[in-house]
Amino acid sequence: MSAAEAPAPASAAAAPPAAQAPCVIEMDGVGFAYGKAAPVLDNVRFRVREGEFLGLIGPNGGGKTTLLKLVLGLLRPQRGTVRVLGHDPAALGRERRRVGYVPQDTGIRWRFPATVRDVALMGTYGALGLFRNPGPAEEAAAVRALKDVGLAGQEERPAWKLSGGQQQRLAIARALIADPKIVLLDEPTSGLDTGGQAQLFQLLERIKHERDLTVVMVSHDVTALAHHTQQIACLNRTMHWHDRSELITEQVLNHVYGCELDAFFLKHHEHLEEFHGDSALAEHAHGPHCDHGHHAPGAGAVPPRETPKP
Amino acid sequence: MNDVPSYLEALLHTPLLKRAAAAGALVGLACAALSPFVVLRRLAFVGDGMAHAAFGGLGLALFLFAGSKSDDPAVQLTMLGFCLALAVAVGRATRRREGGQDEGGLAADSAIGIAFSVSMALGALLITLRYRREPQYAPSWEGYLFGSLTTIGQGQVWITLALAAAVLIALVVLHKELAFYTYDETLAELSGLPVGFLHYLFLILLVLTVVLAARIVGIVLVSSSLILPGVAALACSSRLTTALWVAGLVGVASYQLGLYASYRWNVPPGAAVILVQFAAVAAAQVYKRARGA
Fold first, then answer.
1. Cα distance between residue A283 and residue A259, in whole Å
2. pTM for the model
3. Which band of pLDDT confidence, cut at 50, 70 and 90, is reported for residue B235?
4. Nearest Cα to B151, choosing from B16, B8, B13, B255?
5. Which end of chain B is less packed: N or C, by CB atoms within 10 Å?
6. Cβ within 8 Å, pair A113-B98
7. What is the per-residue burial (b if ≥16 Cβ within 10 Å, else e) of A1-15?
């Protein structure tokens, strides 16, 4: 078991290598429709493993935002199951804020009277609970989160005076301050120019590594996602799953964005070894299927190799 | 100009004026404390509608209790119950629904408009019926619409004190939750904040304020006090805490200046208060422009 003897990462919370990492998001046979309208999602199967940076593309109305809302527990599936960090998202309770969310419209649409620091600190309110106000620990976390997103020194500015890209990064800081395990971003690049988009991707990659995050990003920008994410999933009512950005050919895109909705899965694990450059991964690859035992909440179910060294 | 000393002299020695100043300050404070939230959450229409809807509750109570007057506790409580029930209905209509279906449903503002206009019509109808039944107890509904700041009893001062205390305690305890909920309801919910509770709590505070204050200063003045101090404060504040302080200041000061104007020029106090509040809005806009914000 070469993987078992592999040096454990220094950080206790560090993710195991991607191929054997547990699934942090699992959807099976998920169907959802708004009211009596045609289903937005139909028999969707979706897996995100711990530590992945996954891009989610698809046409407008293809169900991308709906999928995020299901993961967040804002919507309940009418068919199928959704599990986040091993739980029903609506039953995550206090763990719910382990799922950070950067909504599509992060712009402070009106003159909301709050400074950049105030907005970032809102990310701590859930953990603080009633009667407690942010103290030095929260202030320090705010400073760190704002520094992480490149907004250091802007703390006292009114939040609504920030540019679109800065507001986007402020929204990310607000999500980071709650110390999430997963961050979901809904079209964060839509209001940005090319330079801003590249910066945002660099920022996300850096934060992902520094904070051991799993990132799911909805975007229209296939090219940018192909460059920066490890995996791309295409959603148009059903899921069209890809593990390699290079596999997104014109033909595939036509297929997904077109009317044909037949699901197809490209095998997931075949490329992982090559992609991650870790020969140990191949033997542990589970393909697109998740081994639930790896993510059972009980400690006994966790394989020894996942136990971090002190 | 010896008007101010003579006004202060009168204020000290005229119980009626003293009560008006105290109740005005408290109502102004309670309304003003809520007003930044009312403005930011786009609830101005709800506050205004609620004030008018309370009239339906008044009509209902006067009709139900023979020989009652609008100041009777039974009437006040019925009115309050009516408005709280309406607040829950409004709460349901205005609560954001993820994944809800819109088919055939009414837009929230239309639903509110219907509820309030019908409620007010009901109030007018029932008061008329009551008047036909008991002409000896002619209820004055002008007093309810326009209030009578200068004919306030000591009991009403205590009511306004309790109201202001309730609003201020809620704001002190829940200010960060209300701020986040006002900023973004979805994100607040995802952070584990009890947004449903906050939503209804705020509406109930709004109803209590509207119903109790409308009886004392009139519907029109309550509507104004729930909106104008908030607009003025938000125009010149970059933080919510500052906005709350500025709104409170505008609220209290406008009632005192309005009362003074009423005394000095013998004009209706309610109208004077509203015009002072409008002056504050105008001044805040000028300040905002001057700062280049």
1. 38
2. 0.79
3. very high
4. B16
5. N
6. no
7. eebeeeebeeeeeeb
